[in-house]
Amino acid sequence: MTAVLEVPEGYAPHDVESLRGYLAEIDGLRQVLGGDPAAWTIEEVGDGNLNLVFKVRGSGAGVAVKQALPYVRLVGESWPLPLSRAHYEHLALSQEGRHAPGLVPAILHYDADLALIVMELLEPHVILRRGMIAGTVYPRFVEDITTFTAETLFHTSDLALAAADKKDLVAAFAGNSALCKITEDLIFTEPYMIADNNRWTSPQLDPYAARLRADGDLKVAISRLKLRFLGDAQALIHGDLHTGSIMVTEADTRVIDPEFAVMGPMGFDLGALVANLLLNYFAQDGHEESPGARDDYRAWVLETTEGVWAGFRAKFLALWRGAAAAGDGYPAALFQGPLGAVRLDQERKAYLDRLYRDTLGFGAAKMIRRIVGLAHNIDLEWIEDPEVRARCEARALTLAREMMVNPGAFPSIGDVAEAAAGLRGWEPRLG
Ligand code: SR1
Ligand code: MG
């Protein structure tokens, strides 16, 4: 039976022509686009799992229009999903833009009834994931993404905010529960059990999927991580910070699509970055023209993975050390004098050590879900030969399992990169 889709009065999904009429009625947007609305080119380009995305170009600038559908686009109308996610995306973009100016798209218009956001058109940007599949180096990426993560996570945490302000943020995002439920199910639960949504390269990865379902240590580890996601409102997290949520050029980086935003554990965002870079690393076998042709690129991907954690750590630490008016966590009154300052700085480093371990755990969860869960990455999906794809995936699963169950085996992010590189020539036993 098809579920009934409830939408508020006034909501209807746009098509190219209805969108043209809608945009033409909004003075500011008509001016931005320029020229005769009849001459605007409008194309629907959404290739994500959830929404409609239009690119609109006039004789002046272009705009991007994102509209939520009342269901999961990837699956269809049988999986309803609240339109309120556009509200949370808009709210998160506003917060992120305040803390990390220039690193998110500018918002030009928001229509709550239509669950629609109009943003500047990012051109000639490409989705980072696509650029990395093509083997393109992005020299600004590490610098920009570490600024984005350090600034947004620090400034929305108890390290920077007064308790009442932090609680207001928790309340503001608490209603995004349907999007959180997707994460809770698709990342923290289903890959470790038999579930209709799961899929993997079969039969090659059948033994790997079966081992995940039989691995008690892994189930405990993923459940601990799930508990953290459910209960630890550490900071405002983007909630879906994979390489498909980042647009880049060689000189610019923008983080898009924060519809999964919620107050949650910081390691969830950092783990998403590390995981998706590592997945791209493992996928390179399937994209290089001849064996070894992408070796320099592989090295860049691993350097980037290390740089993301190391750069974040340095910037976050600097923000905390330099915070003029600190938040209600770690009250200054408890850390007075030179001894207090030393003790607090030791604790800052210990906090980041804990965050590093969280990053490995959440990163591992994100690698596993993209290989045996519902929503996969094109880094791996675009590898046509299932034998090649399964080898890449098996290596990634092998590293991910260790990262989640045995994070102590990777004292530094360099150890993760080394382990990934060490798995390169390893021939997994496939089904
Ligand atoms: C049903 S939505 C599947 C996935 O798409 C989004 O990008 C999120 O990662 C979500 O888990
Ligand atoms: Mg998205």
Architecture overview:
- It is a single chain.
- By secondary structure, the chain is an alpha+beta fold.
- It folds into two domains: 16-120, Phosphorylase Kinase, domain 1 (2-Layer Sandwich); 126-423, Aminoglycoside phosphotransferase (APH), C-terminal lobe (Aminoglycoside 3'-phosphotransferase, Chain: A, domain 2, Alpha-Beta Complex).
- It has 15 helices and twelve strands.
- The chain has helices at 16-24, 27-33, 85-99, 128-133, 141-155, 163-173, 177-186, 206-214, 216-231, 266-283, 295-322, 337-372, 378-381, 386-405, 413-422; strands at 41-44, 51-57, 62-68, 71-72, 76-80, 107-111, 116-120, 126-127, 235-237, 246-248, 253-255, 262-264.
- The strands form four sheets. The chain has a five-stranded antiparallel sheet with strand order 1-2-3-7-6, with helices on both faces.
- Strand 1 (41-44) and strand 2 (51-57) form a beta hairpin.
- The protein is globular, with a radius of gyration of 22 Å.
- The structure holds 5-S-methyl-5-thio-alpha-D-ribofuranose (SR1) and magnesium ion.
